[in-house]
Structures are given as structure tokens and as C-alpha cells.
Amino acid sequence: MTFALFSTCGFCGQDIANPMITTCAQNAIIEFPDDSALPAIKWTGTGRCPECNVQPGGNHHPGCQLEICPKCGDPLEQCMDLQ
Ligand SMILES: [Zn+2]
Ligand SMILES: [Zn+2]
Ligand SMILES: [Zn+2]
Questions:
Q1: Ligand with smallest separation from the Cα of 22
Q2: Most buried residue among 14, 30, 57, 77 by CB atoms closer than 10 A?
Q3: Cα–ligand 3 centroid distance for 75 (angstroms)
Q4: CA of 53 to the centre of ligand 2 (A)
């Protein structure tokens, strides 16, 4: 599964480049194929996420390379639970 970062998030429908956007409202919960679901790990860096442009304390847009899996702690894009 590969994602490209689009200018518009396919989940929340917001323009990723828009400086008014603080979080991805559609990415608060990560659902796994085994039917478990965990709260998404928010971006906690200094300044906006360099990949998906959300503010600190916000949920990444799905597909962000810097989002961490709440289940295993690996980057979500490389998480084996989601393959
Ligand atoms: Zn989004
Ligand atoms: Zn991000
Ligand atoms: Zn994982």
C-alpha cells in the first residue's frame, strides 16, 4: 500500500497546504484489519508536520510518512499490522 501526498486530503477533504488546517478530523482512530481500533498518535513535533502540514497536537492526514502506529510504534506506512 503506497500513498502519495495529494494537495487535498482524501479523508477530510481539506487542502493540505492551507495554513488554517490544524488537524485531520477523519484520522482520529486507526482501524486495523483484525477489527481493533486505537486512537491515532498525534503530531508532537515543533512546528507543523513537515510531511502533511498539520499543527502540533493534530492528527496527521492518512498516508503521512511521519505518522506512528499506535499498536507497534513503527511508522504507520511500514506497519505490518496494516498490510
Ligand atoms: Zn486529512
Ligand atoms: Zn504528518
Ligand atoms: Zn503497527
A1: 1
A2: 30
A3: 7
A4: 6
Report which bound ligand comes closest to the CA of 58.
2
3-state secondary structure the chain: CCCCCCCECCCCCCECCCCCCCCCCCCCEEECCCCCEEECCCCCCCCCCCCCCCCCCCCCCCCCCCCECCCCCCEHHHCHHHC
Report whether 66 contacts 42 (CB < 8 A).
no
- Is the CB of residue 59 less than 8 Å from the CB of residue 25? yes
Q: Which residues of 3-35 are buried (b: 16+ CB within 10 A; e: fewer)?
A: eeeeeebeebebebeeeebbbbeebeebeeeee
Mean pLDDT per 10-residue section of the chain, whose length is 83 residues: 65 93 95 95 96 96 96 94 83
**Number of residues that this document lists for the chain:** 83
